[in-house]
Please model this.
Amino acid sequence: MLPEFALIHKIRQTLLSTHVGLIVGIGDDAAVVEKDEKSVALISTDTVVEGVHFDLRYFSFYELGKKTLAGALSDIAAMAGTPAYAFVAIGIPPKVRENDVLDFYTGLEHVAQEFQTAIVGGDTSLAPHGFFAAITVVGEAPRGRCKLRSGAKVGDGIYVSGCLGSSAVGLRLLQKKKPAENVFVRSHLNPRPRIFLGRVLSAYEGVHALIDVSDGLVQDLSHVACASGVGAQVDATLIPTDKDFESLCKMLKLDPTVTALTGGEDYELLFTMDDTDFEPLQRQLAAKKIRITRIGQVVSDSRSTEGPGDMRSRDRRVYVYDSVGREIKLMRGGHEHFA
Ligand code: ADP
Ligand code: MG
Model:
């Protein structure tokens, strides 16, 4: 099977259908469609499959429900939007009991209430093997204010919220059956979609491109770079990580730099911005204790031959440098579910 990225590219080429209200189709974190004079609607779908995205040995159904909706809402945050409604489709294998399903919905409902999202429908099916869920979220953004992957401009700073790599470390701790209650395990089991931050960013004209970090920094940044037709330079030493990240990585036999660059599911926001907006933004976010860090800059990409919007190249267009300015080459950009 092709890599997921290349497969979506081919799927996109076979689809010609359109509709008068469509503003942005396949290729961003959510589709953007007409709503009313003041706002546009956002629509996105996210799927989780047992054995691919989660393991029931260390996820309770309640936690799984919370994480699944949080991950789906993150794509609305990644458009600088606000969620409103969700549909939930589930596939239930024989081993899953009624109470498990209801626990899953209790988890969904807690996150739905926290982010004022109404779950208004879905679908229920039997599944032969693993449990799966697909969540479609509908949201909105003020007209002209949602932030796309394709807006990055040469000269922008590249910024990220929070810390990266924590969820990957948490996953490894859980796999090694060392699930101490710590920030890493929490970050894997109970990620927080950055809805508030997305809304704040929507008001900044200088924020030119936005995506959430679901598949790993390098891979998600490459989506921005490809969609914008630019290059992205990252200084690996600037990537923010949680306290004890390096020592835990060593204990778990993970390379800290590679983990910070490629670990998925942190659901932080990654954006490119005119650097003059950094100070006012930082001041506004300090009260909410949201940290943002500048990790690199957008450059013109002389090495790449693809045009803007080309979805075939995955890790190209992103150039990562170590503490002495040597380029770090990664074998893979991040999580890739289709090997
Ligand atoms: P994210 O990581 O933000 O969830 P994806 O990589 O899953 O984004 O998707 C990228 C884009 O491709 C989105 O616009 C999504 O709607 C679209 N897409 C993904 N899978 C399919 C598919 N099977 N059919 C049509 N569009 C798809
Ligand atoms: Mg996304």
Remarks:
- The mean pLDDT is 93.
- The chain is about 30% helix and 25% strand.
